[in-house]
Predict the structure.
Amino acid sequence: MNKRGVLTVISGPSGVGKGTIINRLFELDENLYFSVSATTRKPRAGEIDGVHYSFKTKEEFENDIESGEMLEHASFSGNYYGTPKSAVEEKLSQGKDVVLDIEIQGARNVKKLMPEATLIYILPPSIDELKKRLIGRNTEDKESISRRLHTAYTELHEAPELYDYFIVNDMVDEAAMKIKNIIEGKHYGRTAMQEALKLIIEEAETLA
Ligand code: ADP
Ligand code: 5GP
């Protein structure tokens, strides 16, 4: 029996360490598939098209939305970001566990479409540390940093109602291990075990 993969959404303020944790998570778990998002943001130094993001023009992105190729999409800090639908669907049906690194509007939309998804929110140890990380990453200009921090404050108010788990990114290894454990647990949850339960109940009925 080919069990469907587990879908995990990871969100958190810009600069909290989502990318860093996800890289570590992929070293810990070989059954994971990272959904490469599309974006209209310009690539940062070291970012590779098709690996970190699919970098698109606004027009290309809008065409993808219109042709129904996006599972979800959102505007963040002046750019579009979106999750391609077909790859996510294909990997889940192959039994691969899929990880999305998306912001809160996208997470809300994924939850509506796929209520079985697990939503994890990464918290900074403090706001001061968040600022230090965002500035220290050295990828954003002043205006983008302040826009991203402003968005973080709004997100933080909305997150408690939406997300299933909250993980403080103090030590990267620990945070990654906690996510790995959550994903592992989901394999024994109601949704993942649906088929196995059905089979054993059917067998039990033949004996009743
Ligand atoms: P995000 O993907 O959430 O925007 P990044 O993964 O790019 O964040 O991390 C932002 C910065 O913080 C990077 O410079 C990264 O090296 C650093 N960082 C990530 N996790 C930690 C941590 N636990 N302690 C200290 N610095 C961290
Ligand atoms: P960054 O520009 O720092 O790479 O990402 C900015 C924000 O966009 C992050 O919060 C990240 O999680 C989010 N993001 C990345 N890809 C997607 C996506 O496909 N959909 C949505 N909704 N958000 C995304």
